[in-house]
Amino acid sequence: MRVFNNIPLLLVPFGFYHSVAFMNGPPIDQVLYEVKLNSGGIWGVTTGTVILSLGLSILLFEIYKATKTKSNEPILDHLLSMILLMVGVVEFLLVPEACTSTFFLLVGMMGVDVVGGFTISYVSKR
């Protein structure tokens, strides 16, 4: 059961992006619904917006998880997060369906997760 604690949570929006981009789901830039703002403007919420919102929410939990890990457990968590980041970067560079701003920002969140996790672990060891 402890193995599941080390799985990077950002795998969820990563998988959600893939299910949308590679399957016959709605395009990443398709407006799902519109929200009328008090200013009179209309904000179109797209599939990409939902994925990024999910990713940001999960990134918060990833950073929190990095503060609560025990002595030797963070190694596997950092390793899996680093692998996910490398897969994301390679995919962004080589796969046409991944060449979107949404995926780029998702990979950026993975980078923040890796750097934040290493930094928090280092500081907590001091």
Structural description of this entry:
The chain has 126 residues and is mainly alpha-helical. The chain has one domain (2-125). 65% of the residues lie in helices and 9% in strands. The chain has helices at 2-5, 11-21, 47-67, 74-94, 101-125; strands at residues 31-36, 42-46. Strands 1-2 form a two-stranded antiparallel ribbon. A hairpin with a 5-residue loop joins strand 1 and strand 2. Helix 2 (11-21) runs antiparallel to helix 3, helix 3 runs parallel beside helix 5 (101-125) and helix 4 (74-94) runs antiparallel to helix 5 (101-125). The protein is globular. The chain starts with a helix and ends with a helix. The mean pLDDT is 87.
Keyphrases for this structure?
5 helices; 2 strands; two-stranded antiparallel ribbon; globular; mainly alpha; 126 residues
Short description:
By secondary structure, the chain is mainly alpha-helical. It has helices spanning 2-5, 11-21, 47-67, 74-94, 101-125, and strands at residues 31-36, 42-46. It has a two-stranded antiparallel ribbon with strand order 1-2.
